[in-house]
Every structure is written in C-alpha cells, then in structure tokens.
Design goal:
Layout: H1 17-37, H2 41-70, H3 77-98, H4 103-126, H5 128-155, H6 165-170, H7 179-204
Length: 226
C-alpha cells in the first residue's frame, strides 16, 4: 500500500496567552502519558483515544446549538467535528483489538473521560478558539506518539501482527496489511485533525486557516456487512 502523506514536524507557534496556556496544558498531559505508559503504545492509544473522541462531539454539539440560537449557517463545521469524533472512536475500536485494556486502565478511562468532558465543555463555552487550539496541540503530540510507535515497530521493539479486520475495512487496507499499516493511516488521521483544529482556532481569532494534511480514504460504512 502507498504511504499516507503526512506533514511531520508541524507546530503552531503560540501567539498570546491563550495559546501558551493551551500548549502548556498539552505538554503536562504528554508528561503524564509518558510517565504512565512509557513504550506501551497500544495501551496508551486505548486510553488516549477515549479522550480524543470527546472534543469533536462537544464542539459539534455546542456549534449546533449556537447556530440554532443565532439562526446562522455552520459553514460545515458540525459535520467535520462529528466525523472527527467518529474517526477517533474507530481508532479506539481498532486498538482494542491490538491491546486489551486492563481493569485498572478501564477505571482510569472512566475517571479521565468524565473529568475531561466537563472541563472541555466549559472551556468550549468560554473560548471555542482556545478549545480548538488545545485539540490542535493534542493532535501534534498524537502525530509524534504514532511516529515513535512506528519506529518501535521498525526496530522490532513492538510486535507487528496482522491488522484487525475492523481496521482493514475502515481504512480499505489490503488483506495482508499489518499493524504498521494501521499506525500509518491513524497517524495521517491525526495530522488531518491537527491541521483542521488549528485552522478553526485561527479563523475564530480572525486569521486564516493553513494547509491541511490529506485525510486517508475511509469506508462509508464503519463495519463490514455480516
């Protein structure tokens, strides 16, 4: 299969206090993830993807309600954010097949998801621009993490089993696809989300959105027919 085109090393230089807060918060969470998971990338993905699927749903919900109140067009943001949430959930369903979460990790997921949902909901109400900037920085770190995961697979430090069936269907991968192929398309997804959310934040700040990394091809139906 062809290698998805991903712009690595993309970083939005913080401008202003809100951007610096968003970046600092992201770096703090990155430190926590590195400390807890180290190189257990499959388990890291399971926990973090349960959180990554929250912002798109929150943003879509609040954007939908705002457009209803103001009786204005959403400029396509709602569908984009809903698709982002669905895409992140498919990342989770894929890595569930790769690394089964422990009971302790399931407990962490319950606590972290609720705390993050409430905090992000309040942040989006107060400042949608900052909320999208946070997500943009989250996705920058996700691209870095999946790049490290690929390096571990290539070096033989992480296993490279056959790709789960749900992943082969969703990303239209060949029958002989492996986990490495899955990580490549997941990283491309995250790069796309990174650029979209940084673009949304810039637009809300009165600026212009930049180039967006291409989205991998996804199946119309999330799961193959029985």
């Amino acid at each position: 299969m062809s290698r998805p085109q991903v712009a690595l090393g993309v970083h939005h230089a913080p401008r202003g206090v809100c951007d610096r807060i968003a970046l600092g918060f992201t770096k703090l969470l990155r430190l926590c993830a590195d400390t807890f998971f180290a190189r257990r990338y499959g388990h890291r993905a399971i926990v973090l993807e349960t959180v990554a699927a929250v912002p798109g749903m929150v943003g879509a919900t609040l954007t939908h309600l705002r457009c209803l109140r103001r009786m204005e067009d959403d400029k396509g943001w709602i569908r984009t954010l809903m698709e982002e949430a669905e895409n992140e959930r498919m990342h989770l369903m894929t890595f569930i097949e790769v690394a089964q979460p422990t009971v302790f990790e399931r407990i962490i997921i319950l606590g972290v998801q609720w705390v993050f949902y409430v905090c992000f909901f309040l942040l989006y109400l107060a400042s949608p621009r900052t909320a999208h900037r946070v997500v943009g920085y989250f996705e920058e770190e996700a691209v870095i993490s999946y790049t490290h995961y690929l390096a571990d697979i290539d070096a033989g430090r992480s296993a490279n089993p056959p790709a789960p069936a749900i992943a082969r269907h969703y990303w239209k991968l060949p029958a002989d696809a492996t986990l490495r192929d899955v990580v490549l398309v997941v990283r491309a997804d995250e790069a796309h989300h990174r650029d979209v959310n940084h673009g949304f934040a810039s637009e809300l700040g009165g600026g212009q959105s930049g180039a967006v990394s291409p989205y991998p091809d996804h199946a119309a139906e999330l799961r193959p027919e029985a």
